[in-house]
Amino acid sequence: MPAIDKFERPVFSLRISITNRCNVRCFYCHHDGILPQSYEMTPDEIYRVSKIAADTGVRKIRLSGGEPLIRNDIVEIVEKIAAVGFKDTAITTNGTLLGKYARELEAAGLNRVNVSFDTLNPETYKFITKKDYIEKAKDGIKKASEAGLYPVKVNMVVMKGINDHEIWDMFHFCKENNAILQLIELLKADNQSSSKFFSEYHFKMDELEEELTQKADEVKTRQFMQDRKKYFIEDGEIEVVKPMDNTEFCKNCTRIRITPDGKIKPCLLRNDNLVDLIEPMRQGYSDEELKKIFLDAVQNREPFFKECSGN
Fold first, then answer.
1. Can you say which residues are annotated as belonging to the binding site for [4Fe-4S] cluster?
2. Is beta strand 179-185 parallel, antiparallel or unpaired with respect to 152-158?
3. For the chain, what is the domain count?
4. What's any GO biological process attached to this entry (predicted)?
5. Which whole-number Å values give the CA distances from 217 to 146, 179, 214, 235, in the listed order?
6. What CATH number is given to the structural domain containing 297?
7. pLDDT per residue over 37-54, tens digit each?
8. pLDDT > 70: what percent of the chain?
9. Which residues belong to the annotated binding site?
10. Domain hosting residue 59, numbered range
C-alpha cells in the first residue's frame, strides 16, 4: 500500500531529476540554476533512493532533468532502477540523444518515454531551443518506437503564434511513429517575466477541445491525472494537458519528487520545504532511518492550494 499524507492523498509515483544540465536552451524553461555535475547523485545513490521509495509503496518512477540522457551512465541508472521492480519505469527527455540510447534503455528495463518536442519546423525548433537538433529529436522518437518502448508520448507545448498551427501536422507525425501526442497548455506563473510570456504566447485549448470532441471516435477521462481527456481519432491518440483548477491539481496529486542533489521535494510548486535525503545517506544512515525520513516528508506534505483540503 502507498504511503498516505495527512490530506489522505496516496503517494505512489516518484519523479527523480537526475541532472539539472541540458543540451538545449528552451526559451520557456524555468530552471532555477544549473547545478554542477559534482552535485549529482551516483547510480548507486539513485538506486538506493528508488529502493527506499519502493519500500514505502511507490510503484511508478520517472527520471527527468534537465536532460537525463546527457548522463553517460544513464543505461546503468535505468538498469539499477528496473531491478527494484517498479510497475512502471519511464523517462522524460528532449529526444536528441534518444536515437543513440533507445535500444539499450529498453534492454535495461525502461518501459516508456515522453519526448518534449514542440515543432516540426526547423526554424521554429531553433527559435525555441537555440539549437539545430530537430533531426536528432525526430530520429529519437522513431528509434524509441522501433525499440518497443510503449507508449512513446510526444509533449508539445502549444504556443500562440509559434506552433499552434502545427497541431494536426504533429498528430500525423505521431501516428506515423506509433506515438501519442500530448498537447500542453502554458501554465501561468506568478513572476512578472512569466506573466508577460504567458500573455504573449498562451493558447487557450477550449475551442480545440471542442474540435477534438467532434472528430474523436472515443473520449476517455483519466481520473488520477486531474481528469485529463484522451481523444482517439483515426487510429491515433491526443491527450490534452490543461492547467487545472489548482485546488483540483493539489487534491489529486500522487507524486513526490527528488532534486538532482538528492533532496525530497514534497510539492512541485514549493522550494521552501525540501528534505535532505542524500546527506544522511552519505553519513551512513540505515535503510530504515532513510525510510523514516521519506515517510515523514510524505506525511508533512501540504497542498500548495490548501482549499483542496476542505480546511
1. 22, 26, 29, 250, 253, 267
2. parallel
3. 2
4. Mo-molybdopterin cofactor biosynthetic process
5. 26, 18, 8, 9
6. 3.20.20.70
7. 668 999 999 999 999 999
8. 90
9. 15, 22, 26, 28-29, 62, 66, 92, 116, 153, 250, 253, 255-257, 267
10. 9-115+246-311
